[in-house]
Amino acid sequence: QVQLEESGGGSVQAGDSLRLSCRASARSEVPYAMGWFRQAPEKEREFVAAVTDDGAKTDYADSVKGRFTISRDGLKNTVYLQMNRLKPEDTAVFYCAARLQVWKNIVYSSPSEYDYWGQGTQVTVSS
Description:
By secondary structure, the chain is mostly beta strands.
């Protein structure tokens, strides 16, 4: 069982930056792939970014490419999402997710592929 705890959300102006953090209560020797998803009111949960267990490969939604960066600190079992040049359309609850890295170098980008989820953190961007 893996517990995930997000932090770093808040209310900002368009163009500002935020960094989300997600700490996993998991054994560091177990390879977990991790990802960030978001859900805006009355919308489906959507993929934002994901990273392999070793941090070697990443993937991003087209809407955030060039603005968001996912990274991880294996020693701290923590994954980060650096969000720059935020837009009002980025407003959503952001969720951290984790799953076992079954196949090396595969980046998982679908919510259905993840087994563990955090409670979410609200990000609000005003124009």
